[in-house]
């Protein structure tokens, strides 16, 4: 994506919208352009431990986590509005579930793994941002997680899919131990 920082708008709505769009294909430098060094993502409780830091590294880690599981990841922006430094962005996240999606505990341990279903999804999301110094400094969201799970066939879980989940979790834990 690589945008020249000189042409990046510091308008709060533009910054917030861009921070959503680069989740699909932005490089680390793109995140540095729009995410404040002190930024916090209030939605990273189930994400990899690498996303539980401040600043661009947090948001880039989240992007890589999503991209690893969902091929063709992209966002449709429907509405965005600001009230001072607070920005609300209504969007739809789209993609295809092509690799395991790993969820983590608060302690950073692997909790649940959803093996790939090959299904596509379009999940509505509302993202909320606080912008300071022309960059995102805080993020939280409301997502249609139930709709997401239904579209991907995670619920209602079949006995076969539950067995696949158990195998995927065991494999992810082995891989995590080997990488530690």
UniProtKB/TrEMBL annotation:
**GO-annotated biological processes:** polyketide metabolic process
The record's annotation in InterPro entries points to:
Cyclase_SnoaL-like, NTF2-like_dom_sf
- Record protein name field: Putative ester cyclase
* Record organism: Kribbella voronezhensis
